[in-house]
Amino acid sequence: QVQLVESGGGLVQAGGSLRLSCAASGRTFSGDAMGWFRQAPGKEREFVAAITWRADSTYYSDSVKGRFTISTDNAKNTMYLQMNSLKPEDTAIYYCARDRQIYYRRGNRLSSRPADYESWGQGTQVTVSS
Hints:
By secondary structure, the chain is mainly β. Helices cover 0% and strands 49% of the residues. The chain has no helices and eleven strands.
């Protein structure tokens, strides 16, 4: 099992930047795929970005493409989400999670479906003021 802990959220003005971290403890494998999701009040959890631990594949939602960058640091067992040019509509609780399937078993494809992920962290609040 793996445990995930998010950090780095906060309050920022529109146009500003934040970097979220997702620290993993327990068993992780190079073939794992990891994802960031977010959930705003009254809305369903939505996909933000995904990556393999080896960082040889990334996938972004259209709403964040070009503004957010997902990355990993294997030595620190940590995944990051660098968020630039933040907008008020980015306000949400951000969660990290691990794909239930090893990357190659999903046909070398990163999933955007929350149901495909497990080991969810507790979340970190991001608030973007206008």
